[in-house]
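--- STAGE predict ---
source: upstream dedup step, 1 unique chain passed
mode: sequence only
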Amino acid sequence: MPGPSTAAGLILVGGHESAAGSRLSPLCEGGPAFRAVGVGRDLAAAVTEALARTNGPVCVLPMTLGRDPRLIADTARTLRWLSGPDSGGRIALTEPFGTPSHLIGWLRAAAGRGVGDRPEDTAVLVTAPAAGPFEDAELFHVARLARQYRTHRWVEVAFEGGDPDVAEGVERCRRLGARQVVLLPAAFGPPPDVPGSEHGGPLLTRRAITGVLQARVTVARERLAHGENGIAAGLDAEHGHGFPHSHGPQAVPPRPDGPAPAPAQGHAHTHAHTHAHRH
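--- STAGE serialize ---
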């Protein structure tokens, strides 16, 4: 587990996967982090306090499991504002906690632990708090890949406060023929209690979470020592997220007393709904 100096300089920032950081509070109660907050003013206040409490680096870690690129970009925007001369070059934005590829692997492992000795009769219901349409669609994609090469027959998706909700998801699993429905969270914190289902345990153990945090902080500190605080890269985290769009050629205005303008300069391409994965 990271030592006290690490805890004093580690801030966790959460979005829809952790109820704006509130589900991360156990990691700050004698744990590896100093504060767990949402983006905006709470993050700014936590960074300011951490800078005053420690002489070392202050690392801010976006606690996304891979479905919240906006969290990374919003965090970077706040840190860009804070990382002026008064910060002493001590603020670092770490890599996010996880990517969709990590989430797929974690769900596979958790499903293997949670389905028991009757995988052919068991449905795994992956749950998470509802977010936006693209974030929710990403979870269906993740769940389908988590199902691949596993022995359990069904992997379905449901959302806390979304469509389908968790009770509807359990009912769907029953109608498909599942005798047992195991809930697995693709988020921080446990899934809700729903009749006709059982919890499959946490996505990650406390020890595993701490190990990931320590790895992210170690890399961020090494990069900061070489002058790279991660903020510029974080600002671009949302690129390619959302509705596809195209950039048409940029018109070159004619010169009234010169030759005809050159052909339009620019680029034309489409950004699909993809994420860049950095490990």
